Amino acid sequence: MPGFWQTLPSALLVSLALAQCTAPDSPTDRSQPATSIQLMTSLPLVWGEGASMESILSGDTEPAPIYRYWQGQYDIVAVDSLENLAGENPDMIILAQPRAMSPADLADLDGWVRAGGAVIILTDPDLAWPSDLSFADPRRPLVTGLLSPLLGHWGLELVAASENGATVTNLRFGEYSFATRGVGKLEPLAPEASSDVRCNIAEAGFVARCSIGKGQATIVADADFLNAALWPDEASQSPRKSDAVRFVDSLVQEQMESSGGKP
């Protein structure tokens, strides 16, 4: 089933890409160029729940707090394909519970990372993101991450770590503490991945940091923590007050420091 972005005519995609550039929370001064990020996601982050072409073009949409924050911090754009990844060559890719990716996109991403690219993957085996959309609606977030081919190629497997994914769980990851649901676990596969892949699985399987060829991948076994409904009340208007937001920022910073530049 095609994703929401795939149903839009190409001319509209150009208009929507320009619309994404409006960032109400943009900082007024940047001493360094903003990190360029391409985001692929099935979560209602960019336009909010149930957005349609009509509501987007009329401006009657509201991005999720974390995307509004990312607009102010990064040069970020939502995409539905990585077909021109090598040509556009962003600083980083973020996959946040993305829709099923084509074999070509998976191959392009793998090759780009091995050449020196950086990717952060938030993949949830048991997403519990509330939605009023029907299960048949392509705009509804994916319940289960669909990145097994890519993760398996890197020697990893994503599994559900708890039986009740709807239960709120409070996590502590280093200095960050945040609530989420349906936490997964990353486990090594046997046999292991190719010789140019090295993964360090930490925090009881919650995060894997992988060196893949010349590039880096950070995989997190959850995506529900991006949901502002789980944050402290004040964080919805000031996302930086959420440890979930600061946690993702720390992953971006970590990747930028370790990637050593674009491929």
Structure description:
The protein has 263 residues and is an alpha/beta fold. 24% of the residues lie in helices and 23% in strands. It is built from seven helices and eleven strands. Strand 10 (207-212) and strand 11 form a beta hairpin. Residues 1-29 have low confidence and may be disordered.
Task: Fill in the keyword field for this structure.
two-stranded antiparallel ribbon; 263 residues; 7 helices; 24% helix; alpha/beta
Brief overview:
24% of the residues lie in helices and 23% in strands. The two termini are 32 Å apart. It has helices spanning 10-20, 53-57, 65-73, 85-88, 103-114, 148-153, 243-259; strands spanning 36-41, 75-78, 92-96, 118-122, 156-160, 168-173, 176-181, 184-188, 197-202, 207-212, 215-220.
List the helices and strands and how they pair.
Elements: H1 10-20, E1 36-41, H2 53-57, H3 65-73, E2 75-78, H4 85-88, E3 92-96, H5 103-114, E4 118-122, H6 148-153, E5 156-160, E6 168-173, E7 176-181, E8 184-188, E9 197-202, E10 207-212, E11 215-220, H7 243-259
Parallel strand pairs: 1-2, 1-3, 3-4, 4-11
Antiparallel strand pairs: 5-8, 6-7, 9-10, 10-11
